[in-house]
Amino acid sequence: MDAPQFAPVTAANWPYPRHIAHRGAGKLAPENTLAAFRLGASFGYRMFEFDVKLSADGRAVLMHDATLDRTTSGTGRVDALTLGELAQLDAGAWHSPGYAGEPVPTLAAIVRYTRANGLLCNIEIKPVPGRETETGAAVALDARSMWRGADVPPLLSSFSEDALAAARLAVPELPRALLVDALPPDWLARAQALGCVALDANHKVLDAQVIAAAHAAGLKVLSYTVNDAGRAAELVGWGLDGLITDAVDTIFPAG
Ligand code: G3P
Ligand code: MG
Predict the structure, then answer these.
(1) What are the pLDDT digits (tens) for 204-243?
(2) For the chain, which domains are there?
(3) 215 in active site
(4) Which residue's C-alpha comes closest to atom 3 of ligand 1?
(5) What's the rounded Cα separation, in Å, for the pair 114 and 233?
(6) Best mutation site among 16, 19, 20, 22 for ligand 1, i.e. most ligand atoms within 8 A of its Cβ?
(7) Ligand 1 pocket: which residues have CB below 6 Å?
(8) What is the pTM assigned to this prediction?
(9) Do residues 62 and 110 make contact, with C-beta atoms less than 8 angstroms apart?
(10) How far apart are CA 183 and CA 197, in angstroms?
(11) CA dist 99 to 33, 45, 61, 87, 187, Å?
């Protein structure tokens, strides 16, 4: 195994800002496209959450759904097409005419843009069903090579514990967050078993007690998708460390 490329990210040396733009710029631009990242950055966002899965030929691309139908000009499963075929699709016209022709970005293209502009990343590993282990390992290995020489590594997160386990095996030093939509009673044990540095939960299942329990165990806490400014303030008051939002035009990063 290669020597670790990044110093371990811990709660004590947490390098990430609190405000994180969801899928680039929420709903203001076509999700998971470079255009969305540019728009999110124009509102002052310095960190971006996005969804990554693999093409038929094992290349990491940004896409939320398992199928292409909702957000591209294509149809069917994302992993039925090669990268070359995905590159022919329009991932912007579904949103609004001004974004027509926006391509499906590769992870490599997003890394080029974010690193060139000093922006940080939260890669949500979102495998198509059945490719969890392969996707977790491939994304972690890609991240290690694409962020070579960077001061701050991307934060990996996933609802798939298999994907997180595979990412850990492939590149142990990349920080991981366990995503949960509901809060299982053993959430802390699950996060710890995967060597996670953070819990990343639907804001509806978070309260002051959960955040305090995570902090007491040495975990940071992120939350999605927080679009109401009052709720954001409440969560921050409880000590929330990472606030993933669509509302990049109304919730502004501090500082
Ligand atoms: O990573 C947090 C959030 O993006 C998880 O939900 O469905 O928007 O990917 P989803
Ligand atoms: Mg996501």
Answers:
(1) 999 999 999 999 999 999 999 999 999 999 999 999 999 9
(2) 16-52+107-245 (3.20.20.190)
(3) no
(4) 224
(5) 27
(6) 22
(7) 22, 49, 51, 64, 124, 157, 179, 224-225, 244
(8) 0.98
(9) yes
(10) 17
(11) 10, 20, 18, 16, 40
